[in-house]
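Worked example 2:
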Amino acid sequence: MPILFKKKNSAAGGFLRRRMTRREMLYAVLRTALFFGLLILLLIAFIYPFVRSGRAMLRHVEAGRADLAAAESYAEQLMIGDALHRLELAEVEFDSARRELDTLTPLSSAPYVGTRIKAADKLLLGGLIAVSAVREALHAVQSVFLLATEGEDMIGSVIGSLPSGDQPFSDLTMEKKQAVLAGLLDTSSHLSRSVSRIDQALLTLGEVPQGVLDVELYAEIDSAKEKLAEVQVMLQTLATATQNLPSFLGYPDAKRYLLFFQNNTELRPTGGFLGVYGLAEVQNAELLSSMADDIYALDGPSEEVDRPAPPAPIQKYIRIDQWYLRDANWSPDFVESAKLMDQFYFEEAAVAGLDPQPIDGIVAFSPALASDLLRLVGPVTIDDKTFDADNLVDELEFAVEVGFREEGIPVFARKEIVEDLMKEVIRRLVELPLSRLVGALQLVERNLNEGHVLIWMKNPNLQSFVLDNDWGGRLQLSKSDYVTVIDANLAALKTDHAMSRNIDYSIRPVDGGYEARVAINYIHGGGFDWKTTRYRTYTRVYAPAGSELIRVEGALEDDRLRNPSGQPGTPDVYDELGLRVFGAFTSIEPGKTGTLAFVYRLPPAVVADIESGEYQLYFEKQPGTEDHGLTLDLDFGKNLTKAYPAEEPTEFGDSHYKYTTDLRLDREFSVGF
């Protein structure tokens, strides 16, 4: 079988061709086979440990991922003991995988294989750091519960391992409560360290080389980084909370709080009429004392002394010429109102001969919180009256506005039932099983986020914590467009219970700028009775500084009785809190609807944002309100390229941004062109 064999002729510089004999050919084949055979044997001997290590590494990685998924599931169920156990298993598996990877180090300089080894190393290292950080955070949380459980075994859920599961918080001794609060304070440093370690994990994962791993794996890495970032934010919030919560709860020094019940059926700027005030003193999470009383117990004696003049709308529409504590929350910014509430309380308490003691802060809350607490602790019966989450407001208002007369209760004692109710609810709260306190905390947090609880602290650090979490009722200054609508019920009884509101906000291009219109559509669904009458509101719209009022629509000089001809009212325009304010009065008869609208020109700063291709709107809810409807129709005169939140697909492809939502929370919007 002839074949051609090429051999270089160094002398001639060319190639000579000749035929190989069968013997030569067989020798060549055997020699080649032997060479490749030896090479394969060498490669197998060299590579086999790495193949084996690679497979073992993958097994460890998959086991670690399964442990992580289980840990996440347990953590979501607050089963911290189980979550910690699975995190520890995941850490062992990832560490084992990295040790297997170390055996591949000799190949790290090889093309292709080396870059994949380096990528895997960064991935495993980032995962190890992340798991370790989360595990340390959970251990810190667990240690606090251990303080409350006298060192009981924490394998299993936190809730299930608390003392007997059903032991009330009130059964913990003062020393035990103090130890728990001290543990919380110590936990803060551990959580902060976990936050820093997650930074390291994110940095390490960001160093994974691009383009050397499968696309699906990069997608998983991105997903893991997003989850880590979310956990980091949560841990940072928790670290700040554990740093400040002990002080709020009176550790190491007692705290004294001035309380206000803001009745949002008589809406006022920070949430409602200040009909009831109270005091509470707490130390080491234990309530030392509490009381509640009618606001008029303070305002009444002060009618005999000179008081400051109230804001003009109060003078005009309520027809009083002195400013009392009940009207102190006139500013929609709770920080400003709380300072005045603090001042007025001490002035009036001194006049009433109450010898007021220094306070550390003010807490104001609406009926929404009280109803939620009753939903948690169950119905409460006081003086043969049963209050539950659904009837609280109606029953309580009837008792203090009408029922007290039928029962022969003096006017000055008509709100004692509020104090009795408050004390009973507090008693039941502290007697809740520890396993249910998490639900109570979540309930309070939701009310804080929705503006049904507002806090003001005199301690600068605690006040910063409150404001950073947007629990202090401070108006949020926006860098771009901003709107908040503030109603003040002025002598309209408790009519807000019958009122519905829908707010329309629109803008359109006009003469090189943009014209904005805020329209508040009121629907009066009630009639005339002991708590309901025609609605009377002085309404303010806070807009970006520099906005110019063009006109007001629907403003009235006064209501139907005092202004039978329906003479239009004159709007007020002024600057406050770094914003432009437009204010006007309007009135709505029972069973009727009405609209109050402010039309104004947006300032140059907002116009510049639109022209630059980026528009943002922050629409802030009024504290104490439930869920006013909100409809946006924003015409920018040029097609949109992006928007958040996204419009309905049928609205795509034009110059309008149209969106409908509610104001249960503050809302943010952004549009690009």
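The first helix runs from residue 22 to 76. Confidence is low (pLDDT under 50) at residues 1-20, 22-51, 151-165.
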